[in-house]
Structure formats: C-alpha cells, structure tokens
Amino acid sequence: MIGFGIYFYGNTQGNQKQIPIEKEVHGVAIKIYPDDYSTNGDLVSFEGQIVSDSQKIRGFYNCKTQAEPNRIKRNQQTQIINADVKIQMIKPPTNENEFNYQSFMHTKSIYNGLTVIKVNSKLSNQVTFSIETVLNKLHEIRAQLKSYFSSLSNPLDKFLNALIIGDKTQDFNQDLESVRQLGLIHLFCLSGLHVYYFVMLIGTLGNWLFIPRETMNKIVLLLLPCYLVIAGESSSLRRAIFMCMVQIICELMSKPVQGIIIWCLALLIGLLIEPQLLLTFGGQLSYLMSLLLIFMENKGNFESGVWLNLFSLPFVLFNVYQWNVLAIVLSVFIIPVFEFLILPIVICGGIIGHHFQNITELINNLLNLFINLCEKLANLPLNITFGKPGLIACVCLLICSLACFLRQVSIKRWVVLFTLYMCLFLWIHFPMRHEVVFFDIGQGDSTLVREPFNQKITLIDTGGKVHFKMDDWRTRKEYQTSGEKIIANYLLSQGISHLDYLYLTHQDADHIGNFPSILKKISVDKVVVPLGMEQLPQFVKKIKSTHAPKKLIPMTDAGEKLDSGLTVLHPFVAGAGKNEDSLVLFGKIGGFKYLITGDLDQAGEKKVIQKYPDLQVSILKTGHHGSKTATNPLFVEQLKPKLAIISAGKNNRYGHPHQETLETLKKYRVPFVSTAERGMISIRKFQNNKEKIEVFNNEKS
Questions:
Q1: Per-residue confidence at 10, pLDDT binned at 50, 70, 90?
Q2: What are the residues facing 552 on neighbouring strands?
Q3: Which of 70, 91, 126 is the last residue of a domain?
Q4: Quick check: is 498 in a domain?
Q5: Where are the alpha helices (DSSP H) in 296-437?
Q6: What's the whole-number average pLDDT of the chain?
Q7: Per-residue pLDDT for 371 more than 80?
Q8: Vertex 538, ends 535 and 544: CA angle to 5°?
Q9: Is CB count within 10 Å lower at the N or C end of the chain?
Q10: pLDDT band at 390 (very low <50, low <70, confident <90, very high)
Q11: Residue 71 lies in a domain
Q12: Are residues 141 and 259 in the same domain?
C-alpha cells in the first residue's frame, strides 16, 4: 500500500511538471554530467538538470562545426552551460504497441525534453565540499572509465562498458541482438551478480589487510552507493545494492532479518527514489526474480531455472511478444558460463588493457565465440511469436503459475495454466475481426490489411526515411528504422511473423525505405510492384540485400488476379516506378470500400476515373501525403468518399497536407483525419457486421 501511494504521488508530481506546448526560453542554466553525453553524427544527446528548479531533462544539440562532437566526447568534467532552448514535454507514442519513450523517461523522473538553440556560455561549477561535489567526481570517474574502455578493442570495449559501468550503447544492443532473442539479455543488466563480485573484492582486500569484519562492513556500506553511481544506477543494480545495504545494516545492529523483509525494504527504498520503478520491464523482472530466489533457496539449479522462466514468461510476452524454446535450458547452463568465465575475463581484460595484447586478443576471441554461439542458437527455428497478452491476462497467468508453484503435484492446476496459454495464443493469432491499419510512420506511408482469422495478411508500403546529402561527419547512424520500431513491432504484438503479400506502390524511399529492415524480422511470401519497377538497379540491389521473398510480382491493372483481397486499378502500362506509375489499390472491409493511391499525381487520378467511371469509395487515402500534386477535384467528386485519410509527418518540411488539398476536401464536404495529428488510424469490422474507425490519439475533437 505504501509502495502504491509513493507511485501515485510521484506520478502526480511528474505530470504537473510537463510543458504541453513548446516554448522558447533564454538564458537557461543546465548542469550536465560528463557521462551523460552521447554523440551520433552531428547530434549530441544528453540528460541534464535545470539548475533553477532541479528539474531533470532530456536534451539535444545539433553541432555547428566538425570539431564540436569530438570535443564533447573528450570532455570529462561536469559542466553548467547557459543556453537558449526550446522546451516541451516528451511526446507519447502515436501507434499501438509502439515503444513508449515518454513512459520510459518518466521512470527516470524526466518529463520534458529540450533542444539547445544556442550555447551562450559555460559557467563555473566550483562548489564547497558537499554531496554534490562527490556526485560530480563519481560521474567524472565513470566518464573516464567509459573513455578508457572505449579505447580497447572490440568486442571487449562494449562488454566492459555494459558489464562494469552499465553503458549499453546502441552498437552493443545491435551486436547482441541474438542474446536478446534467446532471452538472455538480463545477464547484461548490472545486478546481484556484479554486487556480489564487488563486495567479494572489498572483503578479500580487507582480509589481506587484517581489517575487522565490522569495520569492513562499514566501509562496504559507504562504497556501495558510490559503486551505484559509477555503474549507471539501473533499476536492477539499485535493487541488489539496497538489499545488500539493508542486510549489512541489520548485521551491524546484530538483528537477523528474513530475506523477504530485506526484499520489501529494498522495494520501498527503490520506490521512494524511482516511483514508477515497477512499470519498467527491468524493474519488474529484477524484483520478481529476486523474490522467487528467496523462496527457492533449497531447490536445484535446473528446477530454479524452470520456475524463474515460468514466472517471467508473462512479463516477457507482454514486453517482447516472443519466447525462445531454448530459454529454459540456456538460462540454467549459460548463467554459470557467464558467471565463471565471461564476467571474470571481461574484468581481467579491463585491468590489463593495452599492456598485454596477446591476452587481450585471446579474450576478444572468447567473447566472439560466445557471440557466434548465441547467433547460431538464435537462428534455429525455435523462436515462438506469441503476441502481446493483455494486462489482465498476464495477471491471470501469474496467479496460475503461483498456484502451480504452491502445489506442484496438482495436475489440474498445470492443465489450467497450459489451457490459459493456449487460449491466449489462439485468441491473438486468429482474431475474428477484419482490419485496415494506417500507421503513423512519420513522413511516409504504410498500411496493414488483415482478414478475419488472419486468413490473409497484407502490408502496403513500409514507410522509410528520405536521406539528404550532407557532410560525412554530420551523417547519423540509424540503429533501428521506423519500420522495425513501429510496423514490425505492431505485427509481432499481434502474433504476426509472416506476411502473405507486400505491395510496394512505387520506388520512393518514404514508401519502401524500410523494406529491408522489416524483412529481417517478418518473412514475406509475395512482393507486388508496379510493372517496370522490378528492373530498376536500385530496387534489385535492395531485394538482394534482404531475406528474399518467395515471389516478386510486377503488376498492371490487367495483370493476374491475386487472392489478397485487393484489386489493382493502376498502372495501365509499364513504367519506372515513379509517382505517376504508382499502384492504385481498391479494397473492401464490410460495408466500407477504400482506395489507396500511393503518390499518384492528378493526371493519373483523372485517367483512373476515366477508365473506371463507376468507381466510388467510402474512404480515400489521399495521394502523396495530401500534396497539392494529388487529390484532383474531379477525382474526389466522382469517388464521393465519406472520409479522407492523410498520411503525413508532423511538422514535415514539405508542408503536407497542402491547403489546396484541404480546400478540395472541404468543397466536397469530405471530413479528413491525419496521422500527423491523430496517430495510427484503424478501421475494424467485427463479427456483428459493425465497422468501427479508431484513432490512436483521441485528444483532439
């Protein structure tokens, strides 16, 4: 009850700090620790604190010169800068099951983001000795370690940063994607194992120096908070350190306390510092796993591993949507390897550094062997795409798992648990509704069409980023495309790992740019393109760089009839995959008829209605993101749509949708919704034959 009270109080206080409307503020003093910077091309990201009100913020700065990113990387001092900034609350997600970056930042007590427009000056950070100066020094030590580790060879550098100071970079996450797929990424979360090594090291040092145990306990009690800061202050590390500190305090007071009491006190301390602690995946797993270990002290490693996997499974499915069959076995056998081999050799590699290159090379070979082994295991067809169970379903799964744990010989309880998982699997994988989803993919296009029971699943375009020419030093590395973060993530949450059809309307990057990255996670049977596009060298290269689909089908309106539920109305002849060659697709969902026109221009729209004079639709997806080059008045007049959907990016550089398009829609009394304002838009038809249009952001009228 106290914990929930802390959460609601912290959440209320945080919401009051949010700044809903972007505003420009001059002369803001911001304190930034040197280990809180990261650079990507010309973009500098950081977490800092506004000095005037101690508010934590997430900030960004676009470097003006080539020297700036390197200078910021080399900085190892805590700084206070005076800057002109734009500040606004961190944006929530705009698509269903998209990663909620806003909630993630809230768990770190960060409610607003800012963009630095201009740095006016750097202020002095000289203060008298206090907790603040100690914190500054600890962060500076962490920055120095980060710089030192990064100077070592790969992959030792990434392992050291992740395991010693808790700095898991995007490169590290990309390299160890296979570890995540196997459900072993928790090994790289600083937690009890690392605290155990730290305390053991201090204890061994005390024994060598003949320091009394009581004195060493007091020293450890002082050093643990320092280690917490240097190691990155993750939720799992906090939990381990708080439990260790509570246990030492009780020992110093000569008051033995049960493990469950220590766990509860650690949780309360964690909630006081981080009110939304239990809303994070890491926080949930860390506290759940440690609680289970308290109750399984007398069980063997394999049995404990099975139970830990069983209890963690609802959390894994709710957050990741997939589960690897090897997870149970690997968690039992890989953990000892990790504990007695990987972690010790990484620490050894960090100590010897550049001094013994032969040993460092051997360590790198062993780490590469571990990575390669994980990749081979992850590539085995043992990954189950379950989908995302609802919150209530997850609670029911946990209750049933607990019932089985309390009475393990009860066959009925195991049958109930298995049946519940099977029912959820079938419910997710065989939905009874027909659905058309227009993703908010930014300045791009992507639409999903699903028939009832997933009989046919079709994706139309993939969205993508248009890259403009710039200096090499300004180029930013894209670790995850919007196709992976939004489209693939949504598909996996719905239990979909396979597409029957992928229609690519034309060659523009904002329509097909995410094609290769989506195919890394989602398999495709057939890819349909406008006739002529399949011969373009750039497109052929893109196809070869992906997990190739089984069949590539070039189409015109006179081409073969496919069983996708969509009818191709354009192009009429072969082209070069340009805007004027765009596929035009006609489909039905219940009583709704809809039309998707890619980036077809007004001249092409006129040709379509000339060839199909009786064509009418309920929903029109306006061409070219609402540009004035599309949505011809005669086209709208004939189609007589009841609703127009515009897919465009918020505050895009092109000014889409153009006023001319909106005036045309207004003239013919066609209401419209835009993904830029309303986020993901869904049309769903249920078994009762009722159609329903839903928008993800329902705040606007």
A1: low
A2: 527
A3: 126
A4: yes
A5: 301-320, 327-337, 343-352, 357-378, 391-406, 411-429
A6: 87
A7: yes
A8: 85
A9: C
A10: very high
A11: yes
A12: yes
Distance, in Å, from the CA atom of 450 to the CA atom of 496, rounded to the nearest integer, reads 10
Same domain, 602 and 648: yes
Distance in Å from the first CA to the final CA of the chain: 37
In the chain, the amino acid numbered 634 is L
HSE of 458, CA atoms in CB hemisphere, 13 A: 22
At position 468, the amino acid (one-letter code) is F
DSSP line for 256-317:
---HHHHHHHHHHHHHHH-TTGGGSHHHHHHHHHHHHHHHTTTS-HHHHHHHHHHHHHHHHH
**Burial of 467 from C-beta contacts in 10 A (0-12 / 13-18 / 19+):** exposed
User: Domain check: are 247 and 176 in the same one?
Assistant: yes
Mean pLDDT of 336-345: 82
Q: Please indicate, yes or no, if residue 6 is contained in any of the structural domains.
A: no
Cβ-Cβ contacts under 8 Å for 587 (sequence gap 6 or more): 436, 449, 565, 566, 567, 593, 594, 596
Q: What is the pLDDT of residues 226-235, one digit of tens each?
A: 999 998 888 8
With respect to residue 701, please indicate whether it lies within any of the assigned structural domains.
no
| Residues 590 and 685: beta-carbon distance below 8 Å | yes
Are 151 and 299 part of one and the same domain? yes
Q: For the chain, what percent of residues have pLDDT higher than 70?
A: 94
Q: Name the strand (E) or helix (H) holding 82.
A: strand 79-89
For 18-100, where are the alpha helices, taking DSSP H only?
Answer: 67-74
CATH code of the domain containing 603: 3.60.15.10
Which segment, 122-126, 265-269, 292-296, is predicted with the most confidence on average? 265-269
Instruction: Encode pLDDT of 577-630 as tens digits.
Output: 999 999 999 999 877 899 999 999 999 999 999 999 999 999 999 999 999 999
**Higher-confidence position of 292 and 112:** 112
Q: Would you say how long the chain is, in residues?
A: 701
Asked whether residue 487 falls in the same domain as residue 526, the answer is yes
pLDDT digits (tens, 9 = 90+) for 435-446: 999 999 999 999
Structure tokens at 185: 């990424």
Q: Is the peptide bond before 549 cis (omega within 30 degrees of 0)?
A: no
pLDDT of residue 167: 85
pLDDT at 700: 44
Q: Are residues 149 and 113 located together in one domain of the fold? A: no
pLDDT at 327 over 60: yes
Whether 5 shows a pLDDT value over 70: the answer reads no
Domain with 116, as residue range(s), is 18-126
The residues that bridge with 546 in the sheet, in sequence order, are none
468 has a pLDDT exceeding 90: no
* pLDDT score at 4: 56
Name which of 509, 670, 671, 524 is nearest 578 in CA terms: 509
CB atoms within 10 A of CB 476: 12
> Crossing angle of helices 281-295/259-273, nearest 10°?
170
Helix (H) or strand (E) holding 116: strand 112-123
Q: Kindly state the tokens that stand for 293.
A: 């270990």
Q: Are 43 and 10 in contact (CB under 8 A)?
A: no
One-letter identity of residue 131: I
Is residue 255 located within the same domain as residue 237? Answer: yes
Please state the rounded mean pLDDT for residues 637-654: 93
DSSP secondary structure letter of residue 577: S
3-state helix vs strand vs coil in the chain, percent to 5 = 50, 20, 35
Q: Cα torsion for 409, 413, 416, 419, to the nearest 10°?
A: -20
pTM of the predicted structure, to 2 decimals:
0.91
The last residue of one of the domains, among 126, 146, 170, is 126
Please name the residues in contact with 694: beta carbons below 8 A apart, sequence gap of 6 or more. 681, 682, 683, 684
The answer to whether 617 touches 585, Cβ cutoff 8 Å, is no
Q: Are residues 141 and 122 in the same domain?
A: no
Token look-up 């209750």 returns 399
| Residue 211 in this model has a pLDDT that exceeds 60 | yes
Q: What pLDDT is stored for residue 84 in this prediction?
A: 94
- DSSP annotation of 561 reads P
User: What is the tally of structural domains in the chain?
Assistant: 4
